[in-house]
Structure formats: C-alpha cells, structure tokens
Amino acid sequence: MPSLGPWSPWVTSLIQTAITIASAYVAGHVFNALVMRRLAHAAAYTREEWDDIIVAELKRRIPFWSLLIGGQISLQYWASVHPLAARVLPALGVASVTLATAAVATRLVVIYGPRTSPGVPVSGLTHTLVRIVITLLGVLVIIRSFGYDITPMLTALGVGGLAVALALQEPLSNLFAGIFTALAGQVRIGDYIRMDPGVEGHVIDFNWRSTRLRQLAGNVVVVPNAKLAQAVVTNFSLPATDMGISLDFTVDASGDLALIERVVLEVAAEVQRHASGAVTSTEPSLRYQGFTDTGVRGSLGLRVRDFVDQFAVRHELVKRLQARFAREGIVLAIPSLRAAALRPAAELPADSPPMT
Fold first, then answer.
1. Separation of alpha carbons 232 and 230, rounded Å
2. Is it the case that residue 353 has pLDDT exceeding 60?
3. Cα separation, 71 vs 125, whole angstroms
C-alpha cells in the first residue's frame, strides 16, 4: 500500500492530474469566450447558415474536449497506466466527435435538404439514416482504436446478415420501402395523397417503419411503408399543388343553353376572382356533356390552389349559382322532383304537399 505522506509520488501525481484537468477545463471556457464568440459573431454576418451550425456545435463540446485533453496529458504523471485506460480517453474523443458530426450533418440536411424540393421539409427517416451512417463509422473507428480488426467483424455481419434479414423481414421491408419512397420524391411531406384502399390525407412524416397521414377530420392514419410502396397512390400535390375541380349539373332541356352558359361562366368567373383558395390566373370553362332522361348535363371546371381549397370554392359556387338561377328563371332538372311532378295525383301519398 503506498504511503499517504504529503509528498508521496501517488499524491503528487493526483495533485498534478487535478491541476492539469482543471486548467484544461478553464482553458476550454477561455477559448470559447475569446475565440468561439468571435467566430460566432463573424458567422452571424454571413448569408449561409452552415458556419453558424458548425460554430454552435463546436462551442457546446469544447469544454468536454478540453477535459479529455487534460486527462490525456495527465496520463504521463503516472508511472504505470493500464493499456485500457490509455485507450478509453481517445475512444471518448472519437465518440464525441462522431456525435458532433452527426448533429451538424442532421442540421445541415434540415436546412439545405428542402432546397432540392422547395417547400418540402425533411422527413424523420432522413434524420435517422444520417445519424445511423455517421454513428456506424464512429463505432468502427472506436473498435479499431482498441486494437480489434474490423474485417472479421464485417465478414461475420455479412454471414449473419441473411439470418437477421429473415428474422426481421417485415421491419426491414418497411425500412427500405420508406427509403425508396423518400428517394423517389413521388410522395413528400405536406403532399395530399389518396391510396387505392381509400385512405387519404396530408403526409406528416416518414419514419423507419411507417408513414403518417393526417386526414381532413384531424385523425392520423399510420400506413406501413411497404403498403404505401405497393399501393396505387394519387398525389394531388404533384406536379403542382393547384388542381382542377368540376361541378356537374343538369338543366331542363327546354332552357336556353346559350343563356345558361353565359350565366354559369359569369358566376364562376366571379367566384374565381374573389373566393379564397381559387386560382385567379385561370378562366373557368363550361362543357355540355350530353342529354339525359331529365335534361341536358353540363360540367363546369375551374382551378383551386390546393386540394383542401376545393370545398370552400365549391360551396361558394353552389350558393351563387343557385341565387343567379333563381333570378334568371333557369330550372335545374332534379330527377326526384321531376319524377314526382310527372306522377298522377292519385299515386301521390295523402300527406304529400301540393306541387306548384
């Protein structure tokens, strides 16, 4: 047992270690205050954001790195150091650098990723993949720093990968389906999609297992990525968010079709200019589709800015058309009312209101 005298080598080494680590920690804070603060101030005046991200992440971790440097320097004060202890500090440094790199890469992806597809945020699946790739590289470096050869490990992983793939077939299929869907860019966050089973909604996020859709009622539907990749999907946000809508109606065959066309287009143009959600740069169109048992069927087309906007625009259009038809004396051919009007009075129920 070593002597505990005030000037024993063990106590001297301990005091030197404490002073070195404390000095390194203080030096790290001083470096942050003198150097990193100026770098942050200079980065704030640049147009790009990558330098702000790097400076912020470095500033957070410099005090910890200074502790590691102080601990590494302190190893020389000890006569004998276990080989494992000499490798732990570099491994912690590699782990910290790996985490810092992953944080910087993730934030850069969040900022610069939407520039490839303006208005589309980066999914959680992309964040996860970036972190996994960088973390795996860091783990391999740490393993190698402890003196282990990673080549046999990679070989073992390749051999055992088949068994793992068979055991985790469903999770892996969802993972790779989500990756392929994200890379293809055919379904993006914020898009309004409709799948062939009838599920539809705005895409909230992708993760390694599923895609979340928010329906118009506010409910969230969780769809496995593999199901999404196999389904027939209609994306109402591609190639552009604006879309055309139609309103079908049937007028009495005895009506003046030229007058009806003029009235309908006037009302539609007014709605197109003033209704919230309508595309003002386009003109509405009307096409008569043909004759039916009750009259002449027509279809009015106009454009809205987004899938959800069609409901408000259609609502306003129906209101204004009904009021204008009433003023112009235009009669809509409604099958149920027309059939009731053609039935003999004896066939009508006793409590039926008189037809006018």
1. 7
2. no
3. 38
Domain ranges, ordered by start, for the chain: 9-166, 170-235, 243-340
DSSP letter assigned to residue 32: I
pLDDT > 70 fraction of the chain, expressed in percent and rounded: 80
Distances (CA, A) of 184 to 40, 117, 200: 37, 12, 20
Is it true that 170-235 and 243-340 share their CATH fold?
no
| Tokens coding 324 | 């204008």
Average pLDDT over residues 78-89: 73
For 220-238, give one letter per residue: b (16+ CB within 10 A) or e: eeebbbbbbbeeebeebbe
CATH assignment, 243-340: 3.30.70.100
Angle made by CA atoms 194, 199, 200, in degrees to the nearest 5? 45
Q: What is the CATH number of domain 170-235?
A: 2.30.30.60
Instruction: For the chain, give the mean pLDDT.
Output: 80
Instruction: Quickly list H helices, 75-149.
Output: 83-112, 124-145
